[in-house]
Amino acid sequence: DFLCDVCRRERPAFDLARTAAPFRGGIRTMLHDFKYRNATWLRADLADWLEGALRAHVDPAQIDWVVPIPLHAARLRRRGYNQAALLTAALARRLGLATRNDLLCRLRATPTQTRLSAAGRRANVRGVFVATQPAWIRGRTVLVVDDVMTTGATLDEAARCLKQAGAWRVWAL
Questions:
Q1: Which of 40, 130, 38 has the alpha carbon at shortest distance from 78?
Q2: Which pTM does this prediction carry?
Q3: Residues near 80 by beta carbon (within 8 Å), at least 6 away in sequence
């Protein structure tokens, strides 16, 4: 078991977090193209990496639901797709798992986190999610998927919300 320095100082709400690759170089370019330039065909390659990162650390059979980080409706309309939902669907299909896009809802639009400090990111997403189907969450292991994890603030807030709704374990990818 590995705990990073940040997690040692302040334990996150998620029980486990894994990333597929460092966010630099070619992967950074790929993710920016995928997220901002409509390069949705990259989801298969990105899902390959996510699957490898997940299988290296957990047995996917332990997961009840795979849930994407939701976008606010305004951002979804502007972008035309939720990149985390595309990754979630591709990953869940490969693993033979159920995906639920309706377990978490983003209550308000938040500014981009790209230029915020770690504390600013936590404040930006505090209270932004609501669990919409607590009966489907209670006692379950939920895997939450996002496209990028920098400080973990978004995934931490999503996990906190899912735990408050009764999730047994929340894993972040």
A1: 38
A2: 0.92
A3: 38
| Predicted local distance difference test score (pLDDT) of residue 9 | 73
- CA–CA dist 61, 111 (Å, integer): 36
- Please report the pLDDT score of residue 8 as a whole number: 67
pLDDT < 50 positions in the chain: none
DSSP 97-125: --B-SSSEEE-S-----TT--HHHHHHHH
Residues 6+ apart with CB under 8 A from 73: none
| Dist. CA 20–CA 124, nearest whole Å | 25
In angstroms, the CA 48 to CA 20 distance is 9
Report which of 20, 41, 9, 37 is spatially closest to residue 145, judged by C-alpha positions. 20
* Dist. CA 32–CA 146, nearest whole Å: 13
Biggest alpha carbon distance in the chain?
Answer: 42
Which residues touch 35 (CB under 8 Å, ≥6 apart)? 79, 83, 147, 148
3-state helix vs strand vs coil in the chain, percent to 5: 45, 15, 40
Is the distance from CB of 52 to CB of 91 less than 8 angstroms? Answer: no
